Amino acid sequence: MSHLALTFDETPEAASELHRSLAAWLRTDERLRRSTRLVEEPPPPGALGGLATAVELVTAAGPVLSAAVGAFGYWLGQRMAGHPISFAVTLADGTSRSFTADRRDRDLVLAELERFVRRGQAGQAEARVGPGRDTSGGPGPELGPCSAPAPGPDPASPTIP
User: Fold this and answer.
1) How far apart are alpha carbons 25 and 33 in whole angstroms?
2) pLDDT tens per residue across span 96-109
3) For the segment 10-44, what is each residue's pLDDT rounded down to a tens digit?
4) Could you identify which of 35, 69, 103, 121 might form a hypothetical disulfide with 59, taking C-beta atoms 3.0 to 4.6 angstroms apart as the criterion?
5) Which stretches of the chain are assigned E, i.e. beta strand?
6) Range 30-38 contact pairs with CB under 8 angstroms and sequence separation of 24 or more
7) Which residues have C-beta within 8 Å of that of residue 89, sequence separation ≥ 6?
8) CA–CA separation, 112 vs 82, rounded Å?
9) C-alpha of 9 from chain center
10) Parallel, antiparallel, or unpaired for β 2-8 and 36-40?
11) 14: Cβ–Cβ under 8 A, 6 or more apart, which residues?
């Protein structure tokens, strides 16, 4: 089963708002509704609610994660109000990668995010069936909206480590 967790590098309160907003946005897509989970910490004594600490996507189907990356890209573009947004993605095997995107390089960052997720999915599939065996019976997951190859690097864009 594929698993992906998104977290934001903001103050706890700002990150919580971003997590809640993203989870609500992803749940508007019928393909993502059942796969989206908001992770919350328990509220401290006397508080009305805890902070949201992550958005998780859990699914057995790779195309759903591609759809999620596309939806995340659209949502991200709507939240960038003149400042970059930093986020991290953690896969089921614990592999994590941090990204920072602004309006200028959002598409490049999202293409790299999708490559990272696909590599993780390929690693999970290989771990299930063993090296050298492909039992999928098909050409692989369909490409999402962020799957097109990125154009050459923009000298003004930051490099992605």
Assistant:
1) 9
2) 999 999 888 888 99
3) 999 999 999 999 999 999 988 888 889 999 998 87
4) 35
5) 2-8, 36-40, 52-59, 85-91, 96-101
6) 31/64, 31/67, 32/57, 32/64, 32/67, 32/68, 32/71, 35/59, 35/64, 35/68, 36/68
7) 4, 5, 6, 96, 97, 99, 113, 116, 117
8) 21
9) 14
10) unpaired
11) 8
Which token pair is 40?
A: 């919350």
**Contacts (Cβ under 8 Å, ≥6 apart) of 157:** 104, 105, 108
Cα dist. 145→67, 71, 72, 73, 159 in Å?
Answer: 7, 9, 11, 9, 22
Amino acid letter, 128: R
Rounded alpha-carbon distances, angstroms, from residue 73 to 83, 145, 156, 161: 15, 9, 20, 19
Tokens of 14: 């700002």
In eight-state DSSP terms, residue 157 is S
How far is 52 from 4, CA to CA, in rounded Å?
16
First-to-last alpha carbon distance for the chain, in angstroms, is 27
Element (H, E) at 76: helix 62-79
Name every residue whose Cβ is closer than 8 Å to that of residue 125 and which is 6 or more positions away in sequence.
136
- The amino acid present at 2, given as its one-letter code, is S
